[in-house]
Every structure is written in structure tokens, then in C-alpha cells.
């Protein structure tokens, strides 16, 4: 999307500001994409763990390790999957914090330079404190 200035006469936003704004948006998209990918991986781990907990510990199962399919028992695989799930959860938490910080940075940058995105509605004032709280909690994701 293209950015244009509003509220400062008819002046255009300097090209370096537009470039920085677009870079911030791209970084935000990248973080959101990675977070969505990790969320799917976390859900997959949960499903497999739940399934394996319901079977005998001595039962054979197969696991991909470094591109090689290896035969193990459920007893050997389950702890590794649970550990992976924990690590993915922590990484997702960190990524979510980074995404929120990037959203604030982008929002502050837009406000500082009075940037409006072409085709985007003008921001409307929240009707009450509940609407303001909802808007703040919704996060900032610019498409």
C-alpha cells in the first residue's frame, strides 16, 4: 500500500519516511506469519501427543529426525515431543511480544509522521472506554 500525508496541508510524506513505514509493515507481517506457523506446529504437537498418550508405551512409532524416518517406541518419543512443544510455546510467546512491540512501533511511527494508508478508513474515535479497551487489546496488524 501507498502512504500519503494528511492534515499537514497537502504535503506529501518524504520518500524515506514511506520506505521506513513499508519496512516496518513488512517486518510486522513477517513476525505475524512466523507466529501463525508456530501456532500450527504447536497444535500439531498437541494432537500427536494426545494420540500417543492413549496407546501403549511399548508400541512402535516412527519419527522424522533430520530428514530420516526412525523407528522408536512411544515411550521414547513422547518426552521428546512434549519438550519440543514446550520450546515452541516459549518461542511463540516471545514472538507474540515482538509482534506487539512492532505494532506499537508502527503505530507510533504513523502518528509521528501523520501517515494515512491509501484506501484505509479514517480512524474514528471510540464511543466509550470499553470500545477503547477493545481497540487497544485487538493489536495492530496492518495489511
UniProtKB/TrEMBL annotation:
Classification via InterPro entries: PFD2, PFD_beta-like, Prefoldin
One of the record's GO molecular function terms: unfolded protein binding
An annotated GO BP: protein folding
Swiss-Prot/TrEMBL keywords: Chaperone, Coiled coil
CDD domains hit by this protein: Prefoldin_2
Keyword Kinase: no
Oligomeric form and interacting partners: Heterohexamer of two PFD-alpha type and four PFD-beta type subunits. Component of the PAQosome complex which is responsible for the biogenesis of several protein complexes and which consists of R2TP complex members RUVBL1, RUVBL2, RPAP3 and PIH1D1, URI complex members PFDN2, PFDN6, PDRG1, UXT and URI1 as well as ASDURF, POLR2E and DNAAF10/WDR92. Interacts with URI1; the interaction is phosphorylation-dependent and occurs in a growth-dependent manner.
The protein, known as: Prefoldin subunit 2
Amino acid at each position: 500500500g501507498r502512504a500519503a500525508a494528511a492534515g499537514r496541508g497537502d504535503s506529501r510524506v518524504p520518500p524515506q519516511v514511506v520506505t521506513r513505514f513499508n519496512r516496518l509493515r513488512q517486518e510486522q507481517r513477517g513476525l505475524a506469519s512466523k507466529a501463525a506457523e508456530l501456532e500450527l506446529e504447536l497444535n500439531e504437537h498437541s494432537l500427536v501427543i494426545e494420540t500417543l498418550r492413549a496407546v501403549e508405551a511399548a508400541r512402535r512409532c516412527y519419527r522424522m529426525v533430520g530428514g530420516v524416518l526412525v523407528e522408536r517406541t512411544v515411550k521414547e518419543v513422547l518426552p521428546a515431543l512434549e519438550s519440543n512443544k514446550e520450546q515452541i510455546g516459549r518461542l511463540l510467546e516471545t514472538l507474540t511480544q515482538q509482534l506487539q512491540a512492532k505494532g506499537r512501533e508502527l503505530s507510533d511511527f504513523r502518528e509521528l509522521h501523520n501517515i494515512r494508508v491509501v484506501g484505509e478508513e479514517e480512524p474514528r474515535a471510540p464511543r466509550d472506554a470499553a470500545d477503547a479497551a477493545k481497540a487497544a487489546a485487538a493489536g495492530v496488524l496492518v495489511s
